[in-house]
Amino acid sequence: MKAALLLALALLAPQDPQDPQEDARRSGFETMSPALQAMQRDDATNPAWLWVENGRALWRERGCVRCHGEAEQSMRGVAARYPAWDGRLQRPLTLAQRIQHEGPVLAADSEELLSLAAYVGLQSRGLPIAPPADVRLDPHRKRGRALFEKRVGQLNLSCAQCHDQRAGEKLGGALIPQAHPTGYPLYRLEWQSLGSLTRRLRNCTAGVRAEPFDDSALVDLELYLMERAAGMKIDTPAVRP
Amino acid sequence: MARTLITVPASARRGELIEIRCLIAHPMETGYRRGDDGLLLPRNLIRRFRCYVGDELVFEAELFAAVAANPLLSFWLRAEASGTLRFVWEGDQNFAQTEHAALNVTP
After folding, report:
1. Residue A47 is part of a domain; what is its CATH number?
2. How many domains does the structure of chain A reveal?
3. pLDDT in the model for residue A22
């Protein structure tokens, strides 16, 4: 009886107002099914690992190791702070673009580049995304945000309309994620292969039937997305539905 | 050579059931899809997977067009004696891949 009374009192007590500091952001990992989460957690079943092993071999074959040494030490945390400003080109570069022009040039989204990006990305697994505080990047982030909120395409939709306003709801049978780029390059079951964030963004522009964004717009968008996901943990190489 | 990831427990007691996992990089092209040029992409499937302990066939699988790219096969074996596990994938376009792994069985 006493216990029931206490329970009733507990139910009547006003709920704690939601802590404004509490993070409402959820990565794609947190919102996907437990079966897929298990697949990603176990390196022996995560198909992205095929590319990681490839990247590990390429790290030596392409001679990255000669300057950078062992990636486990030198590349730790690198993926968490890209895109970053490139002094030589005077523009921001994504991690893939940075790798692309080291040594013989690799084609964008080629197997070799994806493999190296996955291998370098793995060295930041579990670290929080830490966008650099570089004022030269600010105008690019601003433009990225504007692109994120701009309606585009025949469907006249912006990224924000789905991924800010309707995240958690359904598009067809699929859950709309909050679009935090924590796990790229990642293995998407729909693609049956590893893919870059750039590919994912091209997918979205095709989905709303818009003209594809050009390279500089894609970098700016990535800059904004990384800032939006600052502090969330990297889970490269991820698996997504 | 395709890349493979094989998981075998480091050691097992005699009579223990152990899980073996084999992941292989392969496009598993069905032969029904068309490429960007509009032409049919030739069928390229792994047709058969076999696992041997020594010379004894202990697991066999037939694969078809509905199997995903980079197929993961997982199965259980009863550990009887130490030896070498041999994994063989065969498929279209003369695809053939063989991998080995050690099986350590303690009494």
Report:
1. 1.10.760.10
2. 1
3. 79
Collect all residues of chain A within an 8 Å Cβ-Cβ radius of residue B70.
47, 50, 192-193
Closest-CA residue of chain A to B7:
A44
**ipTM of predicted complex:** 0.86
CATH topology of domain B4-106: Immunoglobulin-like (2.60.40)
Residue B69 to chain A, least CA–CA distance (Å): 6
| Residue B36 pLDDT level (bands cut at 50, 70, 90) | confident
Supply the range of the domain harboring residue A107: 31-240
Q: How far is A6 from chain B (nearest CA, A)?
A: 50
Q: What is the pLDDT of residue A37?
A: 96
Cβ within 8 Å of residue B79, ≥6 positions away: B12, B13, B14, B15, B16, B17, B18, B103, B105
Contact check, Cβ <8 Å, B23/A192: no
Q: Give the helix/strand (H/E) hosting A66.
A: helix A64-68
B21 contacts in chain A (CB < 8 Å)? 44-45
Type of residue found at A79: A
Percent of chain A with pLDDT over 70: 91
> Which tokens hold the place of B38?
């509009």
Write down the pLDDT at residue A17.
46
